[in-house]
Write a structure and sequence with these properties.
By secondary structure, this protein is α/β, with parallel strands linked by helices. It is built from 20 helices and 7 strands. The strands form 2 sheets. Strands 2-1-5-7-6 form a 5-stranded mixed sheet. Strands 3-4 form a two-stranded antiparallel ribbon. A hairpin with a 2-residue loop joins strand 6 and strand 7.
């Protein structure tokens, strides 16, 4: 597992630079100076007609649903993390339960939910079953973001917030992932909405709802707990005591999972320190959010929002900045930063963008038209990113292509060797890929061993087995990738280098399939 491809980060950075260049004249034109009060006429001023919540939430949710369904099959391919989801969701409950005791406990609730969904829907269209929950969760999150914007800044801002949320690159990306992050995003958004409703009251039921939603989000992925820090910063002082009680309950409820996943910390050893390809887009988003917050703070309150005890700019900035900042600072000691772990921060960005658009389009006609032009230019800049995200090459690897290459290069009776052993995941969704091949290193299969990738025989046994083979099909990473310095993997590399030579190689996205044979037998 690795971070997101650099080409997507570069495209996002280009989009941000375009946005800065276009927004700067509009932002500096905002007049934030105090305005003299207008004299009221003697007749009664009609109150603005308030849109019902569904009318505010529906456009963003429908846009998110449309973007999620567009190209959702990604040309019929999976990548490695989705292959793990697919395999875990099809295991029996006892096998799944025991596996979570040794691996991937952080995703345990999600796997249980997906197992129930596959049991209900069957295998008629596994790709859709795998990804539709994320599509639906992202649409639900868009509705929640719109409702947040409506409550904090009025119906018009809420509608624009939902529309700004749906096309964000990270949101589109995870709307089509068979993983838990879109669900976490949706639950955190609605927990934040529950918090806003509870903050203006002392009703225990509302605080209980907030606590229950946050606990659910944390059980789907424990790094959702970082949203608690953003909520604490945004709350007024009067609400911090009941919030503290709810937050303590969430932490206590999460503690058993956190302790279990801490024992499985070796699973995230693949995460490296964030490079500039990650840091620059993150900083760019923060600068864009600060500019939008400056616009929002200068907004005259023409639309009454009596139920908004929380400041929209503060909440938006806190959600966007604090969780990734905390994860990034932790990564200075133990690398843990991956942007999908704090995907819910995108809700904060959308809140700020939607409220800023509302502010800028309420000025003069010239400024309103300029703002519309900026929004259209930004949407145009997103088109290449959106197209790229719906191709197999957008992910780290293509397990479907790797399975086809394995099937094409191997012949019945050949030995197959996964180097490293976790690359066995490329074959798990496709039993036909290694049909007739002998998995020479395998000791116990993944489900039977209660592991993600299966267990392998001892290094000495593996060496003896390899030396008796004349042909070995090796499923491995592209050249130049880091190698595992564990005895079993060292033996694989040593025996292949000393006693075999490559005869044929098939390269697919993110993988190499190499046929080895003894010298002179190719």
């Amino acid at each position: 597992m690795t971070g997101l491809p650099i080409n997507r980060h570069a495209a996002e950075l280009g989009f941000l630079l375009t946005s800065f260049a276009l927004w700067e004249p509009a932002i500096t034109a905002v007049d934030t100076s105090p305005r003299p009060p207008r004299l009221l006429r003697s007749h009664t001023v009609p109150r603005p007609r308030r849109r019902p919540p569904w009318a505010v939430a529906a456009p963003g949710a429908l846009l998110s649903l449309a973007l999620g369904l567009w190209g959702v099959r990604r040309e019929g391919t999976l990548w490695r993390d989705e292959a793990v989801t697919y395999d875990m969701a099809r295991r029996g409950l006892p096998d799944l339960w025991h596996t979570l005791g040794s691996a991937d406990a952080v995703h345990g609730l999600y796997y249980l939910l997906m197992r129930g969904l596959f049991a209900l829907c069957g295998e008629a269209d596994p790709l859709l079953v795998l990804r539709l929950p994320s599509v639906a969760a992202t649409a639900l999150a868009a509705a929640g973001v719109a409702c947040l914007g409506r409550r904090l800044a009025g119906p018009r801002a809420g509608l624009l917030t939902g529309m700004a949320f749906a096309p964000l690159p990270l949101v589109q990306w995870h709307a089509q992932e068979g993983r838990s992050y879109a669900m976490v995003l949706a639950v955190v958004v609605w927990a934040t909405y529950a918090l806003i409703r509870a903050a203006g009251t002392r009703r225990p039921r509302r605080w209980a709802l907030y606590g229950a939603l946050m606990l659910l989000a944390c059980l789907l992925h424990e790094f959702a707990a970082l949203a608690l820090a953003a909520h604490a910063v945004a709350l007024p002082r009067t609400a911090r005591r009941p919030w503290s009680v709810a937050a303590l309950a969430v932490v206590l409820g999460l503690a058993p999972l956190a302790l279990l996943s801490h024992r499985q910390a070796a699973q995230v050893d693949w995460i490296g320190s964030p490079g500039w390809s990650v840091i620059l887009p993150m900083l760019g988003l923060w600068v864009l959010a600060l500019l939008a917050a400056a616009v929002v703070r200068g907004r005259p309150h023409r639309v009454p929002t009596p139920h908004a005890p929380v400041s929209l700019p503060v909440l938006g900035l806190a959600l966007l900045i604090l969780p990734p900042l905390a994860l990034w600072l932790t990564s200075l000691v133990k690398p843990l930063y991956v942007d999908r772990y704090v995907l819910y921060g995108q809700a904060g960005l959308a809140l700020l963008l939607g409220a800023a658009l509302d502010r800028l389009t309420r000025g003069t006609r010239r400024r309103a038209l300029g703002t519309v032009a900026v929004a259209l230019a930004a949407a145009t800049a997103l088109v290449p990113v959106s197209l790229d995200q719906r191709t197999p090459a957008s992910r780290v690897d293509d397990t479907t292509a790797a399975a086809r290459a394995l099937r094409a290069i191997g012949t019945p009776g050949d030995a197959v060797l996964y180097l490293p052993l976790r690359r066995r995941v490329w074959s798990l969704p496709y039993p036909w890929a290694a049909h007739g091949l002998r998995d020479i290193a395998l000791d116990r299969r993944p489900a039977a061993s209660h592991t993600l990738y299966g267990t392998e025989v001892a290094p000495g046994v593996l060496r003896a087995r390899l030396l008796t083979e004349s042909r070995v099909v090796v499923v491995t990473d592209p050249a130049g990738q880091p190698v595992d310095a564990v005895p079993g993997e060292i033996v694989k590399r040593h025996v292949l280098a000393r006693y075999f030579e490559p005869c044929a190689t098939r390269r697919v996205h993110g993988a190499r399939i190499v046929l080895y044979a003894h010298p002179g037998l190719c």
